[in-house]
Structure formats: C-alpha cells, structure tokens
Design brief:
Layout lengths: L5 E7 L3 H11 L7 E7 L1 H5 L9 E4 L5 H10 L5 E6 L2 E3 L3 H7 L6 E9 L6 E3 L2 E4 L4 E3 L15 E3 L6 E4 H6 L12 H11 L3 E12 L17 H14 L5 H21 L5 H18 L27 E7 L3 H13 L3 E8 L6 E5 L3 E7 L15 H13 L11
Parallel strand pairs: 1-2, 1-4, 2-3, 6-12, 13-14, 14-16
Antiparallel strand pairs: 4-11, 5-12, 6-7, 6-11, 8-9, 8-10, 15-16
C-alpha cells in the first residue's frame, strides 16, 4: 500500500551547526516518500550546501517561530506535515512511526515522544493541557493510542515532534504569529480540539532533543530572558482562559517562574541579582502580550510540486560493540558502514559506574557510552553485574525498534 506523502518542516535561527546535525538525522529516515522544508537564516541555509536541489529552503531571519512555521507550511506539498526543531535529531523510524499514528483515518494530528539531553531519559511523553496552559502527564501503551483526557483538557503535542494532516492545518490557518516563542503548538492543540479534531500519540516516534541555547536560555538551560514567555502566556490566557481569571493566573505563573529561578540560583546557575531582573522581563512581556493582535486565520494555499528526498539509509542497521579503548577503530569501521547506507550504532563500555549518554555524531552515527555498571535511564536503579555481553544485550533491547534492528543484528 502506498504510504502518504509527508513534508517535514524545520525552523532554525542562529544555530547553523545544530541545523546541520538535524539534517543528518533527517537524511537517514526509513520512510518514503518525504520532503524537507527548511526555514532559516542565511548562515543556517549555507550550512546545508551538501544537499543541493534536494530540499526546499526559505530565508527567514525574524525571531518568530509561528511565522516561520507558517512560511514553511506555504512550501509544503505532503498530505501530512511533520515538525521537528533544529536542536533535535530523529530516530531513523521516527517518521514511519508518526504516520502509523494516523490510522484510523479520522486522526488529525499525532505526537511522538521526546528524549532529553542524555539521549535516554524522556523529556516529554504523552500529555494533556487545559485552557490555562497547564500541562499534565498521561499514561498510555507503547503502541499508538488516543488518550483519555479530563473534562476541559485536550491532548498536548510538542512542537519538536508532531505531525498534522495538511488539509486540516491549512484550514485552521496554521500557527498564530502572536506566539513568537512558547505555547504556539499548545494554542494549535486547543484550536484543533475546539474544531472537533482527534489527536493521538505514537510512543515509538522518537526524537532526541538537546534544549540548545537560544535567546531565552543559556547552554546550561538557565533562563536569560523571560519576556517572550510572559508575552505568550498573556496571549494564550486572553485567547483561552476566563477573562476574569487573567490576573490571578498570571500571578500564579509568576510564582512558578520565581520558584524555577530560585532553583537555578541554588544550583549556582544564575546570580541573586538575576532573579529580580528576570522577573521584570516576565512582567514586561506580559504587559506587551496584553496588546498583541491575534491572527486572523485563513486557509493556506497548496503549492504544486512535491520534492522527494532520497534517504541515504539502505534499510540495514548494525551495532558495533566494544570497550572504550577501542573507540578509534570502532569509529573508523562505523564510518565505512555509514558510507554504505547502514544505520550505525556504537556501544562503548568502560569498567565504571559512569552514567550512559547517547549522542548523534558526524557523519551520522549513534554513539552510546557509559560504565558497565552505570545507569542508562535516570529512573533506573543500581545496575547489577551482567557482564559485558549481558549489558550490551540489555541496552540494544532498549533502542532496537527505533533503529530497525532485527534479531540477527543483535
């Protein structure tokens, strides 16, 4: 059966190196047919010179993720539009698993799961959100599912890992540019729900998200400016919450942000003087957001040409295993196999209790390293001695489905 065409939209600004890494991941997807639309500043697009004529590119350098995504939508032609952030990398089966979530055919949007900075623990799984923007976790199976949400809530997609039927998204007019940053996809989820559309989750549609530095946070994730958070929160509450609750809700949000800042202060990531300064940017943003105009949503036109991207993955997948002192020879072998179109994972163990990390490195190789007795998932208890081969088998079982590994590949 022919699979639906999918357009992937990536928005980037001032993060050329990360955009290039994201593209490496997108180039290895085990799915056909898909196209890639990149909306980025000139430096970002210059970093993608190795893909001439293979992707759709649009120059855009304004600090407004909603406007950038809408421009990307204008250039899409797929039946489904998928979104991923420039500081994220998809697992090879990401797109195939997202598409599975649209079965049965009455599903309008699908969200996947997001792994955090160590590449193992989950940053976001399934969630729901109410009219105040408050998110709660939802339990669900490992297979695609429609969540059961409480009254007044709707399923919450994450902008770095979601897909929406194009005809539905364009009919809604895309994203609201009043959300320059933050709550843009949350607003869209509520609009989807208000229009009667169903949202599902595909747990095995995974991306790795690094939370890279941007205009609002440092490399350590400590906030540097809360203006856009305050502005978007004000816009969101004006659109969806009870107007009489606007002030109490923002007061509650301010206290939440204060507690977050104090946590960063305790850990030495910001200075005492930063707390008051950052809270002022939050209040300034809220005042500005009171007056931002909402978008007048209108359908978005559909272009005529679909530009299929030819994945570099042949469909084969392999794991190279070894001790940390073998990393040089294993990386050399990994590059050779990657050049042949294989999905390659290197597992490096050392005799320690060092926690495990997963990285996606040039030229497109997955590398997991850590101690023989070190924890993988943060929620994991002490790792009992399994020996080298036993621990390798345990780790491969965790990611085998996402990397399309067969039993023979283990």
């Amino acid at each position: 059966m022919t699979q639906p065409t999918v357009s992937i939209v990536v928005v980037s600004r001032n993060r050329a190196a990360l955009l290039k890494r994201c593209m490496m991941g997108l180039s290895q997807l085990l799915y056909q047919p898909y196209e890639i639309v990149v909306v980025a500043d000139s430096a970002g697009l210059d970093a993608l010179g190795e893909y001439p004529g293979q992707i759709k590119t649009v120059v855009f350098d304004a600090p407004n993720i909603s406007a950038a995504r809408n421009i990307g939508i204008l250039h899409t032609s797929g039946e489904i539009i998928a979104f991923i952030d420039d500081d994220a990398v998809p697992e090879p089966t990401w797109l195939a698993e997202l598409v599975k979530g649209f079965d049965p055919g009455d599903i309008a949007a699908v969200g996947g799961y997001v792994r955090g900075r160590n590449g193992i623990s989950f940053q976001w799984k399934a969630g729901a959100v109410d009219q105040t923007g408050q998110r709660v976790e939802i339990d669900g199976p490992e297979t695609p599912f429609m969540p059961e949400v409480a009254s007044g809530q709707t399923a919450k997609l994450e902008g770095t890992n979601m897909a929406i039927r194009r005809d539905i998204l364009v009919a809604l007019g895309g994203f609201d540019p009043a959300f320059h940053y933050y709550l843009d996809e949350t607003d869209l989820c509520l609009r989807l729900a208000h229009a009667g559309h169903a949202i599902a989750f595909a747990p095995r549609a995974e991306v790795h998200h690094g939370f890279a530095a941007n205009a609002t946070r440092s490399v350590s994730r400590a906030p540097t400016n809360l203006f856009q958070l305050g502005a978007s929160k004000a816009v969101f509450l004006r659109k969806h919450a009870n107007p009489a609750e606007l002030e109490p809700l923002f007061s509650e949000y301010t206290q939440t942000q204060r507690r977050r800042l104090l946590s960063y202060l305790v850990h030495g990531m910001i200075e005492p003087r930063d707390v008051g300064r950052l809270l002022k940017t939050l209040r300034d943003g809220f005042e500005e957001g009171r007056n931002r105009a909402f978008a007048e949503h209108s359908p978005i036109a559909k272009p005529q040409t679909f530009l299929p991207f030819q994945t570099t993955a042949s469909g084969g997948s392999v794991v190279l295993k070894g001790r940390v002192w073998q990393r040089g020879s294993l990386r050399q072998r990994a590059r050779q196999l990657r050049d042949k179109g294989l999905i390659v994972t290197i597992l490096l163990l050392d005799p320690s209790f060092r926690r495990h990390h997963v990285r996606f490195e040039a030229p497109g190789i997955w590398v997991q390293s850590g101690g023989l007795w070190g924890r993988s998932d943060r929620s994991q208890g002490p790792v009992l001695s399994k020996g080298f081969h036993g621990r390798i088998k345990q780790e491969i079982q965790r990611f085998s489905a996402q990397r399309a590994l067969s039993d023979d590949d283990h």
